[in-house]
Amino acid sequence: MKRRTFVSGSVAVAAASVLAAPAIAATIKPYSWDLNPPTDTRDNFIAWGKARGEDPVFLGQRWDRFQALLRNKDIWDAKTSRAFLLTPREEFASINPAIHKRAYEHNFLDIGYGVTMSGPHIQGRMTNVIDVNRGEKVLEIGTGSGVQSAYLANLTENTYTIEIIAPLAQRTRALYDKLIDKGYTEFKHIKTKHADGYYGWEEAAPFDKIIVTTGIDHVPPPLLKQLKSGGVMVIPVGPPGAQRVLKVTKTQGADGSITTSREDIYGGKIVPFVPFTKLEGDKIVGTHNR
Q: In degrees, to the nearest 5, what angle opens at C-alpha 285 toward C-alphas 284 and 286?
């Protein structure tokens, strides 16, 4: 379940470091917290989304993947279901024509820069585990394609995301802006930054929830510090290529002491992620593993 595979990616995709698209007229019904897609039948969902301005073919694929997520218990509550059904994965896959029509597959898809777009099942489970409520401040480490933060933007107005690869960070920011112009105004909820995610986003802290999408052999102290007392982080922890995805809950005692509890969200299953890389100056050098 690798979000990143640091091998040679699509040259054509990598070369397009920034989407230089002009502003376009909105074609999607603007977002509101009252938008509630029907969940009774496939036909009703497609008709509802089509009326909003979306493509019925992709809407059908989104519905089918949603049903698979429910069966696999990767999504289990109404608000996260709503967020998934409102997130247009095809828009984030569109940066690579080779994967555009595969946006809802249970696969990790090449988006260039040696990075992949995470599969919907791991995203669904990690998102549901942190249980984001409206108004909470959430930090994502590893922006990538942008789809995870798009998902979070349907849960809270306060989504922050950090990407270590500068041209990828720029390209994804440009994509968010393009989609806002198109009518996906929920993406105004997303704040982006190019930086080394190990150190979090100190000036925006503290965070209610943190989601990390690269593997590391320990919980980064700066991220734990920036997590509120009672807050939850989901993070792949373990040796290289053999992480377990943990739900880490932080508690602060009356005396200021910090304790954490850990729960494996896959019940002991090893889930390989690539290492949590680090930034030295403007270069990615090595990892944050101890």
A: 125
One digit per residue, the tens of pLDDT, for the chain of length 290 reads: 444 433 333 434 444 444 444 444 579 998 999 999 999 999 999 999 999 999 999 999 999 999 999 999 999 999 999 999 999 999 999 989 999 999 999 988 889 888 888 899 999 999 999 999 999 999 999 999 999 999 999 999 999 999 999 999 999 999 999 999 999 999 999 999 999 999 999 999 999 999 998 889 999 999 999 999 999 999 999 988 788 999 999 998 888 888 999 999 999 888 877 778 899 988 998 899 98
Strands (DSSP E) along the chain, which ranges? 109-110, 116-117, 137-141, 158-163, 190-194, 207-212, 227-237, 244-252, 258-264, 277-280, 283-287
Tokens 């982080």 belong to 233
- Candidates 231, 160, 184; CA nearest to 26 is 184
Show the tokens assigned to 219. 């919980």
CA atoms of 44 and 37, how far apart (whole Å): 9
User: Could you list the active site residues?
Assistant: 118
- pTM higher than 0.70 for the full model? yes
Token code pair at residue 81: 């279901």
